[in-house]
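tool=predict chain=A
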Amino acid sequence: MKLSRCCLFSLTVLLAVSALAQQPAQIPTIPTSGFPGLDQYRVSRIAMFTDDFGELARYREANAALQPPKPGENRVVFIGDSITDLWHLDQYFPGKPYVNRGIGGQTTPQMLVRFRQDVINLQPKVVVILAGTNDLAGNTGPMRIEDIEADYASLADLARANNIKVIYSSVLPIHNYTDKSKEFFAQRSPEKILLLNKWLKSYCAIATNGCTYLDYFSALVDEGLMKKDLADDGLHPNAAGYKIMAPMAEAAIEKTLR
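tool=predict ok
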């Protein structure tokens, strides 16, 4: 029995699809960063990178349950990465209407994606932004300094457009005094941290930008590195570190509200 050209083509397509379906699934790979810990982290985040890059699901329900600010309430949203995520604001700022919207591992592109949901829609008077260290590490891929700075400016533009005052926190110093701090330190050039902080300070000094610069770096640094007793892993402040940061944040918020 002879088959028409149309039937032959359809049969060929079916055979090809069947052959592809029988092949074992390919495990996604990413280019190596040269840091085993970072490579492992990025591989573990592939599903998130493709399905929910900004991690909007993290706070969606909490945001829906949060009531609008009461009349006269000075709501403040803290947005950032793990340094913010791990900060128990209720313990360091008891009774204050401060909302934590930190997500561990995030970079500035991810914060831009979720800025409307996790900041603007919550109607704060002030947003405290602490970001950049994971950009330097390359958590979501290599980033140029100028691209990080552009993201900083975009976050501030979004806040200003919605009448939210901005406090820009400096990138924190890091140290390599302990074994578990060495890879974090190698991923984050102290020189680049200084460059970002210099840009942030200059950006906040421009009156029309309307931003306050919060210089955690100077209070936590010793001879160019994070003071050893303030961060067990060289990157994330411990209780002693947050104890220094808290009154500085409070002073910056009071100044910005005035």
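The chain has one domain: 36-257. The beta strands are 76-80, 98-102, 126-130, 165-169, 211-214, 221-222, 225-226.
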